[in-house]
Amino acid sequence: MYEWIGTAWNALPEPLRDPVALAIPAFALLLAIEWIAAAKLEDGSRGSYSARDARASLSMGLVSIATTTAWKALALVGYTAIYVYVAPWHLPADAWYTWLILILGVDLLFYGYHRIAHRTRLIWATHQAHHSSEYFNFAAALRQKWNNSGEVIMWLPLPLLGMPPWMVFVGFSINLVYQFWVHTERIDRLPRPFEFVFNTPSHHRVHHGRDPQYLDKNYGGILIIWDRLFGTYAEEIERPNYGLTKPVDTFNIWTLQTHEYRNIARDVAASRSWKERVGYLVGPPGWTPAGPRERATADSD
């Protein structure tokens, strides 16, 4: 069976060997269905679309395809060197347990990176663009960041443990594809056993909420178990308000991607000591020398 899968995979053109590329037709179909459904809502409040907001999300997603490819090409060099010269063993790509380790390992590392991204301002600057939409729909799922450097570093343990580099990229793509469908208000609660183990639209609506009770919660990608284990889980009690705690009020995709870097540069330039400079870089969003303030931006993936 594994040989058949490998043969079929290798028969695909190189650009299509990414699960994200294979899923694009499904993304487009689901987005169209949701958009049509939203247009028929009487109040337009749940799952609704703004044409300008959706265009900004789709544009950022298209650019992210190119930037992610560039980051992966760079990472491939490092991962291959680690896999060939440093890894103490090489896991077989045709073994079921390798794929299990891959999926669980990528998801746990994604949880760790995602949590760091929300609590470290310099990394938050790369991630906040995904949370900048005040709508929660399939278009917002495609509002991806352009700087994947943090994730590239976070995946390093996988080739170090003997995971073939190409599998690392496939594993992350699978994780990303799964997360598309949780960006919707059209799906309510699912059966409790599923909600207990897996990330769902209800859990992810909490993550994208800018309400105080929802900030920095539900970081999981595929599994919500990590949040339950590490104390970052929150139940959806009422419909969240989405977006950043301090809205950017623009649909310019360059501004959406870069405004927080400019804010950091401004704060660092105005700092009076190295302690303050470091605090503005690695402290949580909203950090000031005098103590916490209203968060400059708020997240959700």
Automatic annotation (TrEMBL):
Keyword Oxidoreductase belongs to the record: yes
Keywords, sorted A to Z: Lipid metabolism, Membrane, Oxidoreductase, Transmembrane, Transmembrane helix
Pfam families: FA_hydroxylase
MF terms in GO: oxidoreductase activity
Transmembrane residue ranges: 20-39, 60-84, 96-113, 152-181
Organism of this sequence: Rhodococcus navarretei
InterPro entries noted in UniProt: Fatty_acid_hydroxylase, Sterol_desaturase/TMEM195
Protein name: Sterol desaturase family protein
Cellular localisation: Endomembrane system
Recorded topology in the membrane: Multi-pass membrane protein
EC number, UniProt record: 1.-.-.-
Predominant subcellular localization, coarse grouping: membrane
Domain of life: Bacteria
Boundaries of every Fatty acid hydroxylase domain copy: 99-232
